[in-house]
Every structure is written in structure tokens, then in C-alpha cells.
Design goal:
The complex is a heterodimer of chains A (about 650) and B (about 250). Chain A has about 650 residues and is α+β, with helices and mostly antiparallel strands. Chain A is built from 18 helices and 19 strands. In chain A, strands 5-2-1-9-17 form a 5-stranded parallel beta sheet. A 5-stranded antiparallel beta sheet of chain A has the order 11-15-14-12-13. In chain A, helix 3 links the parallel strand 1 and strand 2. In chain A, helix 15 runs antiparallel to helix 16. Chain A is globular, with a radius of gyration of 24 Å. With about 250 residues, chain B is of the alpha+beta class. Chain B folds into 2 domains: about 110 residues, Beta-grasp domain (Ubiquitin-like (UB roll)); about 130 residues, Alpha-helical ferredoxin (Fumarate Reductase Iron-sulfur Protein, Chain B, domain 2), CATH 1.10.1060.10. Chain B is built from 8 helices and 7 strands; from the N terminus they run E-E-H-E-E-E-E-E-H-H-H-H-H-H-H. In chain B, strands 2-1-5-3-4 form a 5-stranded mixed beta sheet. A two-stranded antiparallel ribbon of chain B has the order 6-7. In chain B, strand 6 and strand 7 form a beta hairpin. Chain B is elongated. The chains are: A alpha+beta (about 650), B alpha+beta (about 250). Chains A and B meet through helix 3, helix 5, helix 6, helix 11 and helix 12 of A and helix 1, helix 2 and helix 3 of B.
């Protein structure tokens, strides 16, 4: 199969406008008869579901949480980018486009990214109209701040709770449609398979998490908005329930998986405190606007940070990257922290931490200003560590945060399965090998509000004659049976170890060998370990309770089984990519200064993996990336 | 630390529940309350017993899913803190801790410590929004909003919908939750066109869902992990009155 990204012809700045004007439409009378399934209720899912329902489609939305408002978009802290140029600092659509391509280390598609930059401004308008309370200046207009990897202030924010406010905006739009009966909501439901009929996605199999019933749902098209798979590392900033199952099941039914190894390690998280740790908490990148990152110049300096004099501190980001300083992109800041800790300069009891220090900013701006900007983040830090960050420098360390990889999609956001779409973090498309801060919210809402509702017309316009397919169709039967069998098999193992035991083992392996630094030898070793974990899991996991009741351990087991398989594919992808780019740092490929060394001649492509059967190697397809508008250069933030 | 846990166990909505006692011998001070339950559940699986079901997701105090009633207080003893952000350093060695689900007619129990809070969603569906279709918005800076109003709206909007206000109220009233959304939208110019209709519809569904009346005890404000103010209830009451007089 040849991958066709379907990027429209013409100059980059005109592609989307011209395409929009020519895309086939579905008339209002026909929309009433077309049903769309949306899986996931975060920014991408809720915004898509609300917009599609407003247009007149019949929408069914599924989420595993008890309410659509819980989706993990809610935890995004810092902000959302948009090329509004309200700050009058020279921002433009082109600059946001350029920053995103460069930030992604030249591994994303020009056409998609330009479109993202174009619609970014409409997102802010839409959210403000919904009543999203963004931060404002005293004159009553919107305030902006700056984020890593850029030199303009284009980030809109609502204290440290931007994701929450944007999600509640999308949730309210979706709630309005549910109230109007234009959308139906299925909470506490987990998608366990996609149903394919005549080569097209026509529905899903979901488990009702309250009573364990396996249920069938039809849709003319299925939209995945299921978020990232960072929990493959067990410890990450993702919510406990975030998982890969929905897209992994789609992958096994024929959707190619794009760049699975592209993982973002966020530089500023609260360090691990012990074996009991269940998740990691992010300290927003916005903190790097005012906080300075440093370690002591002397190894093993155990003095309190406030007792270490200025000239005995190494502000290593400011030293190595004078132009961007503490605001270098995430991948670079993370690697620099790892480098210092590995070299023996780490701080805290574990020595796997660096300082993020606000004393200069507090002296310069006053405690009140710092509190107004970051109060809730400081509170979170205090609660988790029991230390007051106003008087002690924060200790931080990188942690898994976001996955740039995901289902391969074309310009329409359609996967390689016709009628199956992927939006938001669960697709691979816009961030290349590294995502810039405050761009995840932008992409989720761009896809959901402004892109998918239009591009899905290309497929649905040909489906107006398709009648709703009854769910007693053999394809539904078959998919449901497979799901029931898998659950039966898991429940019958009754081994000796709980699900988390395997998940933690998998996570440690992935973090050690497929995390911030990777090399061929380690990856090969990791592949063997993951295969052993898989074998052990399927013969030794113990799940209590029954399948036909509320059973959180069974839910976890189904997810971990898929994480294990994904882990192996991530390792294969990391092994295949013999270059360093963005968050993918292959230790064999670096410049003399320790920066990522890309190989544009051989690897300027999207790796799209095709599943060919259990225990069969996946087949690699390449989508060559074409850069007509941006010159490929070594990324420099010096 | 060593702790004794008395935990409410209930198989499902139909069964009767009871307290069960668990001995925890190796609790670390740095654990969160939920991580302690992870350890308990790990032990239970190894012993072949069913795990304690509880709701949780983000574990950073923002999704609003966690909901444990700890020693007679929703989210436990710490002010402004959700269960997931409560750490064991706030308990004493040897202490007995009682853990129950949220209790309210409008929040039926699903299993153990899990309850059904979908009534909150239905209240929002009745009117907790501004009716604006995608693509209809004007430029975001075309309507300046005084910073003080925007900040107040933000404070109201920071509600996480956890239901602690209902759980702590002797009447199981949802007034704090509903008034937070009503206030957020009433404070903003965008929310004006539907202001009266919104408050009437939301209050109607709130009553229909079986939440109790507000008798101004103020317990909700004390226990709210996000510090949502009683001021919002006053604002909603006034809006409700005006809406009924005007229309």
C-alpha cells in the first residue's frame, strides 16, 4: 500500500483555504441520517463531537471516566498558542508555522502544520465566546506569555489551569448538544475494538465499565480522540487511565502507526520519591519564564540551595544556550538535566534532580506577582513534597509527558482505514519529533473545532446512501467474540502477580532503554526483556473478581496487555531510526557538543508501521517529508 | 508508619455494604492517600481477594474524579486538597482511618467507594453553557472585560465538579456546584443573553435530580478543594429571583 498524505496542491498559505472551498459537503437533510462515533472526550473529542452535532450529524461519544469533563486535557497547565500577534512582537501565522516545524526538528508535515497555525487564531475567538476566562490585562484585553522554543509571546493562559478551562469550554459545548439530544454520551465505557465492514470503519465494541457488558455501536465513521500513550512508561504525567488500547486495536485492524518512538520527556516535573509512586506531576513550562535552572558547580555539594553563593552555581542552560537560556525547547532542556545528573551534579537525596529557582524573580517582581502567575503550581509542589517553593528552590527532573507518535493520518486526519479518523494527541501529525509547549491544546482544539468537522465531509459525502448497519451484522459478532475471548483468557490465567507488577517492569525497561537516551545495544536488549514480560504477563497475571461487574483490575490488564505490544513496536521504531531528532536521541548520533544529529538524507520520513499478524514483524512504510517552504538546518538555540 | 483502615465495601448498588478493616504496616509518609490504596489493592490481589474500587484519574488534583470521605470529611483533613493530593505525612503512626464513599441520594453507589455523579452532567446539559456554534465567534479582543470580572469568573470556573460540596452538606445540596457555573457565565458579557433562562433551567434540573436545599451552613465552602466561595450561591439566588420576576 502506498501512503498518500493528500496534501492539496498550491502555495502553502493557500492550501487550506482552497481545499476548504472545494471539499465535498453533506447537505443538512442527509446529515440527519449520518451517525458518527467519537471515542474520547478530551479537547479533541469534545470539540469534534460538539461541532459535528452542531452541524446536524448524530453523534455518540464514549469515555472511560465518569464524566467527559475528567479527560486528561484538563491537567494541561501552561497555555495555548495562537498567532494573534496581540503582543505586537512580530508574530504571524508563518512564524508559528516555522517555529513548530523547527521545534519538531523537521520531522512534521508542512501542510498540516501551516493549517494548524492558520486556525490557531479562531480557537481563541471560539473559546472566549464560550466564556473561557483567559487571563486579562487591566485594560480588559487578553494577556500573553512566552513559552519554550520561541521568541514571541503568543501563549494565552488561565493561571496554571488553561487545560481545565479550555476543556470545560468544550465540555459545555458538548453538554449543550447532549441536552438537545443531538449527541449521546456514554461515560464509563471503554472501546475495545473497531468494527470494519467492507474495508470501512463502521462501529466499535465497548465494555460498559459499570456492569462489564460488552456492547456494540454503529457509526458511518469513527473518530478516535483517545490521547497519548505515555503510560507505556508506567510513570508519566498522564492520568492513571490514559492508555493506548483504542488506537492499538485500530492499529491491529489495519491503521498504520506513525513514529511510535517519538516521546516527549518534559524537563520540569517533581522527582520520583519512592517505589510506591503511581504517577509524576508536571510543573508547567511557563515556570521557566521566571525560574532559573541550575546545579552546584561542585559535585556532591550538599548545602541548602539558598546557602550556595551565586558564583558556585552552574546555570547550565543559560551557559550552553545564551540566546534562549531557560526557554530552550523541552527535549533540549531534558537532555541537559540528564547530562548534569549523569555527570554527578544532581541534587536532592536521589541526586536525580536539578534546581528550578525563583529567588531572583521574587526579588525582582515581588512574591505577590509570582504568586499571581504561578500560585497554584507552587501549591501543588508544596503539597506533594512538603516544601515551600517560595523559600526553597524547587527540585525538578524530566518525566514522560506527551507522545508525538500516534496513528498515521492524511491531510483529512483519516487513518489508513477508510472512515476511521484520529485527532489530537492520538495522531502523529503536527509535532514532528518534539512538541513545543502550549501546542497540544492548540492541536487538540484545531483538529476538533476547525479541521475534522470539515475534512470528514470528503468521506461522508460518499456515504449519504449508506443506511445504518444493524449491529447483528457478522462483523460486529466477530469483533465482539474476539473481545470476549480475550477477556476470558485474561481472567482464566489466575497467576500470582497483580497487573501493576508487569506494568512497572515494562515502564522501567522503556525508561531505561527507550527514554531520554537510546542506543542500538540497549534497544536490542530491551526488546528481549519486553518479549519476556509479555510471556510472563500472559501466564502469570492475576485478576480478581469477575468480568461482568465493575472490575478496575481487569480494565488495567486489558490496557497493559496492549502497552506491552506497543512497547515492542516503539523499540523497533527507535532501532530503525539511525539518527537523533527532537525527543528521539540515539546516543550514537550526536554532534561534538552533544546536540541531536539528524540525518536528513536518510530519515526525513514518517515511519508508518503496518501490523501483519501476532508475532510477525511489523512492516515499515515511509512517507517522505517534503520541505518546500522551510530550509532544513541544524536546530540551534544558542 | 502503621495504620488501620476501615473501608466501606459494597459489591454493587443493589447489595448492602459494610465496613471492613485492613491493617497497613508499611505506609511511607511520602505516599499519597491513593497510593496507599494502590498498596492495599496489590496485597489484596496477592491474597486472592477483590480489590477496593475507587474513582481516580489525573492524580494531580484537577480532574475531580477522586472522591473519598475520610474520617468524616470529603477529601480528608487538609484544607483545599483533593484526596489524590493528600499525603500520608498528615496522618499519625498508629492512627485508624475511616474511608467511605460520597453519600447523597443523587449520587448512588456503584461499588465500594465509587459513586455515580452523572447528575452533575445533566445539570450542565440543562443550561451550563453559552450557546455559540463553532465558527460564529468574533475576534477575542473585540469585547474588553474588566480584569476584576474576568478574575472572579475564573475563580468560579475553577470548580472541578468533584461533589465534595454535596457530600459534606447535611442536606446534600448542590448549590455550590450549580452556582459556580451560573456565576462564571453571569459575570461575563458573553453570558448575558441566556442569563435568566440558564439559572432557571439549571435550578429546575438540580431539584429534579434529588439534591437538597441550601440552609446556609457554609460547610460546602469549607470543604471545597478549590475554595469556591459562598458568594456564588448569593449571586445565583439573586439571579434566580430576578429571572422569575422579570420573565
Amino acid at each position: 500500500m502506498k501512503l498518500d498524505a493528500k496534501i492539496p496542491e498550491g502555495p502553502i498559505a493557500e492550501k487550506w483555504t482552497k481545499y476548504k472551498a472545494t471539499i465535498p459537503l453533506v447537505n443538512p437533510a442527509n446529515k440527519r441520517h449520518i451517525e458518527i462515533i467519537v471515542v474520547g472526550s478530551g479537547l479533541a473529542g469534545s470539540s469534534a463531537a460538539a461541532s459535528l452535532a452542531e452541524m446536524g450529524y448524530k453523534v455518540k461519544v464514549f469515555c472511560f471516566q465518569d464524566s467527559p469533563r475528567r479527560a486528561h486535557s484538563i491537567a494541561a497547565q501552561g497555555g495555548i498558542n495562537a498567532a494573534k500577534n496581540y503582543s505586537n512582537d512580530g508574530d504571524s501565522v508563518h512564524r508559528l508555522f516555522y517555529d513548530t516545524i523547527k521545534g519538531g526538528d523537521y520531522r512534521s508535515r508542512e501542510g498540516n502544520v501551516h493549517r494548524l497555525a492558520e486556525v490557531s487564531t479562531s480557537i481563541i475567538d471560539q473559546c472566549v465566546a464560550q466564556g473561557v476566562p483567559f487571563a486579562r490585562e487591566y485594560g480588559g484585553l487578553l494577556d500573553n506569555r512566552s513559552f519554550g522554543g520561541v521568541q514571541v509571546s503568543r501563549t494565552f493562559y488561565a493561571k496554571g489551569q488553561t487545560g481545565q478551562q479550555l476543556l470545560l469550554g468544550a465540555y459545555s459545548a458538548l453538554s449543550r448538544q447532549i441536552g438537545r439530544k443531538q449527541a449521546e454520551m456514554y461515560t464509563r465505557h471503554e472501546m475495545l475494538d473497531v468494527v470494519i465492514i467492507d474495508g470501512k470503519a463502521r462501529g466499535i465494541i465497548a465494555r460498559n465499565l459499570t456492569n462489564g457488558k460488552i456492547e456494540r455501536y454503529f457509526g458511518h465513521a469513527v473518530v478516535m480522540a483517545t490521547g497519548g500513550y505515555g503510560n507505556v512508561f508506567f510513570l508519566s504525567t498522564n492520568a492513571m487511565g490514559c492508555n493506548v488500547t483504542a488506537i492499538w486495536r485500530a492499529h491491529k485492524k489495519g491503521a498504520f502507526f506513525g513514529n511510535p518512538c517519538f516521546t516527549q520527556i518534559h524537563p520540569t516535573c517533581i522527582p520520583v520519591s519512592g517505589d510506591h509512586q503511581s504517577k509524576l506531576t508536571l510543573m508547567s513550562e511557563s515556570l521557566r519564564n521566571d525560574g532559573r535552572i541550575w546545579v552546584p558547580k561542585a559535585k556532591g555539594d550538599n548545602r541548602k540551595p539558598s546557602e550556595i553563593p551565586e558564583d558556585e552555581r552552574d546555570y547550565y542552560l543559560e551557559r550552553r544556550y545564551p540566546a534562549f537560556g531557560n526557554l530552550v525547547p523541552r527535549d533540549i532542556a531534558s537532555r541537559a538535566a540528564k547530562e548534569r545528573c549523569d555527570a554527578g551534579y544532581g541534587v536532592g537525596t536521589s541526586k536525580m534532580a536539578v534546581y528550578l529557582d525563583f529567588s531572583d524573580a521574587i526579588n525582582r517582581l515581588g512574591k505577590d506577582t509570582i504568586e499571581a502567575r504561578y500560585g497554584n503550581l507552587f501549591e501543588i509542589y508544596d503539597k506533594i513534597t512538603g516544601e515551600d517553593p517560595y523559600t526553597n528552590a524547587m527540585r525538578i527532573y524530566p518525566a514522560v509527558h506527551y507522545t508525538m507518535g500516534g496513528l498515521w493520518v492524511d491531510y483529512n486526519l483519516m487513518t489508513t482505514i477508510p472512515g476511521l479518523y484520529a485527532t489530537g494527541e492520538c495522531n502523529f501529525s503536527d509535532h514532528g519529533a518534539n512538541r513545543l509547549g502550549a501546542s497540544a491544546l492548540m492541536q487538540g482544539l484545531a483538529d476538533g473545532y476547525f479541521v475534522l468537522p470539515i475534512t470528514i465531509g470528503d468521506f461522508l459525502s460518499k456515504e449519504i446512501g449508506t443506511k445504518a448497519i444493524p449491529t447483528n451484522h457478522p462483523a460486529f459478532e466477530e469483533a465482539e467474540n474476539a473481545v470476549t475471548e480475550r477477556i476470558k483468557k485474561l481472567m482464566s490465567i489466575q497467576g500470582s502477580e497483580p497487573v501493576d507488577y508487569f506494568h512497572k517492569k515494562l515502564g522501567l525497561t522503556m525508561w531505561e532503554y527507550c527514554g531520554m537516551g537510546r542506543n542500538a545495544e540497549g534497544l536490542a536488549k530491551a526488546k528481549k526483556i519486553v518479549q519476556e514480560i509479555k510471556k510472563d504477563f500472559w501466564s502469570n497475571v492475576r485478576i480478581p473478581g469477575a468480568p461482568n461487574e465493575t472490575n478496575p483490575e481487569l480494565e488495567k490488564a486489558l490496557r497493559v496487555a496492549d502497552f506491552i505490544e506497543l512497547g515492542e513496536l516503539m523499540i523497533d521504531d527507535a532501532l530503525n531510526r539511525n539518527e537523533s531528532c527532537g525527543g528521539h536521541f540515539r546516543e550514537e548520533y550526536q554532534t561534538p557538543e552533544g546536540e541531536a544529529l539528524r540525518d536528513d538524507n536518510n530519515y526525513a520520513y514518517v515511519a508508518a508501521w503496518e501490523y501483519t499478524g501476532d508475532n510477525q514483524p511489523e512492516v515499515l512504510h515511509k512517507e517522505q517529508l517534503v520541505f518546500d517552504n522551510i530550509k532544513l538546518v541544524q536546530r540551534s538555540y544558542k | 508508619m502503621k495504620l488501620t483502615l476501615k473501608v466501606w465495601r459494597q459489591k454493587n448498588a443493589e447489595n448492602k455494604g459494610e465496613f471492613k478493616t485492613y491493617q497497613m504496616d508499611h505506609v511511607s509518609e511520602d505516599m499519597s492517600f491513593l497510593e496507599m490504596f494502590d498498596v492495599l489493592n496489590d496485597d489484596l490481589v496477592r491474597k486472592g481477594e477483590d480489590t477496593v474500587a475507587f474513582d481516580h484519574d489525573c492524580r494531580e488534583g484537577i480532574c475531580g474524579m477522586c472522591s473519598m470521605y475520610i474520617n468524616g470529611r470529603p477529601h480528608g483533613p487538609l484544607k483545599g486538597t483533593t484526596t489524590c493530593q493528600l499525603h500520608m505525612r498528615h496522618f499519625k503512626d498508629g492512627e485508624t482511618i475511616t474511608v467511605e464513599p460520597w453519600r447523597a441520594t443523587a449520587f448512588p453507589i456503584i461499588k465500594d467507594l465509587m459513586v455515580d455523579r452523572s447528575a452533575f452532567d445533566r445539570i450542565i446539559q440543562a443550561g451550563g453553557y453559552i450557546s455559540i456554534n463553532t465558527g460564529n465567534a468574533v475576534d477575542a479582543n473585540s469585547t474588553p472585560i474588566p480584569k476584576l470580572d474576568a478574575d472572579k469568573a475564573f475563580d468560579a470556573a475553577s470548580c472541578i465538579g468533584c461533589g465534595a460540596c454535596v457530600a459534606t452538606c447535611k442536606n446534600a445540596s448542590a448549590m455550590l456546584f450549580v452556582s459556580a457555573k451560573v456565576s462564571q457565565l453571569a459575570l461575563l458579557p458573553q453570558g448575558q443573553p441566556e442569563r435568566h433562562q440558564r439559572v432557571k433551567k439549571m435550578v429546575e434540573i438540580m431539584d429534579a435530580e434529588g439534591f437538597g436545599n441550601c440552609t446556609n451552613t457554609g460547610a460546602c465552602e469549607v470543604e471545597c478543594p478549590k475554595g469556591i466561595s459562598l458568594e456564588n450561591i448569593a449571586r445565583m439566588n439573586r439571579d434566580f429571583l430576578v429571572a422569575n420576576v422579570v420573565d
